[in-house]
Design goal:
This protein is of the alpha/beta class. 39% of the residues lie in helices and 14% in strands. α6 links the parallel β5 and β6. Bound molecules: 4'-deoxy-4'-aminopyridoxal-5'-phosphate.
Length: 368
């Protein structure tokens, strides 16, 4: 008789999450940074990894306070804070996905609820499922703005009484950034209810000048976690380094549930090496922002609805048959993403060549 693995009932029939990984010339589907490491950075990485390799018989530093301090200093510079965020208020894991799952493990669980606003990043329900947390959603505002208002957030909190609220700024897949007032209102309301607010800022470095980070109000709220990643602006998606800033008791709670030595010595060495090259790595951000704005203008010029983006991707529509557009682009070597509300598509901003290939392909498929 065939063996049936005793999979948890709630996981039966679920498929592993993931966007298609297809080998085509223009990969514009998972919001990666299109620029590979430079030869100078690769040499520096090799040296750093080589040094770490000499101690690989030992477990890595479990607390990596040096790395946390450096990331705290980096965030202070990015968000224009008066002082570095102390190491004890920082935490690092294998991508912000792991950060989030650790946060859900610490603060979610059976009998607890997490609230997000749709359209949202597709992994949110999976962190909840994996940690046996109930996942509920409310809708963001209507297209093409997809604005989230204080009223929507407060009504959602009132309706669902969540322990965790996930807000994303800029939001994936819409690109929409949040105001500081909204973050403050949500954090204050949740504090009164004994709940936490997680602001996912995976794409924060791509925001327009003058758009604030939730880090600006980190000191005002005992229940606020801000999550970031090296996968996007730092162009290190392959290294799997995500991190968060939060008041110390929240970081300490997450430390309780992390697996020991979860962040390998190699990942730590790569993160340090990347911080040594911060200026070079972030050098692409200004270019990508400019390309994003040009791409948005191009799409608007063609008569599409375009969600205002503070990120490195653009949600645009609407198409009667978005699947057909997606596939016709793919045939021309351009891989984008079929995600978001019906009729919309999301394109990640690529190199100048990627973006040109996307424009040309779209014009061929769908002449204006
Ligand atoms: N948050 C958002 C909103 C994302 O879009 C992503 C990646 N697509 C992540 C978190 C996870 O990023 P990583 O685990 O690579 O840091």
């Amino acid at each position: 008789m065939a063996f049936h693995p005793p999979l948890r009932d709630d996981l039966r029939g679920d498929a592993p999450y993931g966007a298609p990984q297809i080998d085509v010339p223009h990969l514009m589907n998972v919001n990666e940074n299109p620029f590979p490491p430079s030869p100078e950075f690769i040499a520096h990485l090799q040296e750093a990894v080589g040094r770490a390799a000499t101690g690989l018989n030992r477990y890595p530093d479990r607390e990596f306070l040096d790395l946390r301090a450096r990331l705290g200093a980096y965030l202070a510079a990015d968000a224009d804070l008066p002082a570095p965020i102390p190491a004890e208020q920082m935490w690092v894991a294998n991508g912000s996905n792991e950060i989030m799952q650790q946060v859900f493990t610490a603060f979610g669980g059976p009998g607890r609820r997490a609230l997000a606003f749709a359209p949202h990043y597709s992994m949110y329900p999976e962190y909840a499922r994996n940690t046996l947390t109930e996942f509920v959603t409310e809708e963001r505002g209507s297209a093409p703005g997809f604005e989230l208002t204080d009223q929507m957030v407060l009504a959602g909190i009132e309706r669902h009484d969540p322990t965790i609220v996930l807000l994303t700024s800029p939001n994936n897949p819409t690109g929409t950034a949040l105001s500081l007032d909204l973050v403050r209102t949500a954090a204050r309301t949740l504090e009164e209810r004994g709940a936490i607010l997680v602001v996912d800022e995976a794409y924060a470095e791509f925001r327009h000048a003058g758009v604030p980070s939730a880090l600006s109000v980190l000191d005002e709220h005992p229940n606020l976690i801000v999550s970031r990643t090296m996968a996007k602006a730092f162009a290190l998606a392959g290294a799997r380094v995500g991190y968060m800033a939060a008041p110390r008791p929240l970081v300490d709670a997450v430390r309780v549930v992390r697996l020991p030595y979860h962040l390998s010595a190699i990942a730590q060495a790569v993160a340090h090496a990347a911080l040594d090259f911060t200026d070079e790595l972030l050098g692409s951000v200004a270019f990508l922002r400019q390309q994003r704005d040009e791409l948005a203008a191009f799409l608007t010029g063609r008569g599409h609805d375009v969600a205002q983006s503070d990120s490195n991707f653009i949600l645009f529509g609407t198409f009667a048959d978005r699947r057909a557009v997606f596939e016709a682009l793919l045939q021309r070597g351009v891989l984008i993403r079929e995600v978001g509300p019906d009729g919309w598509l999301r394109v990640s901003v690529g190199s100048a060549e990627d973006n040109q290939a996307f424009r040309t392909a779209l014009e061929e498929i769908d002449p204006a």
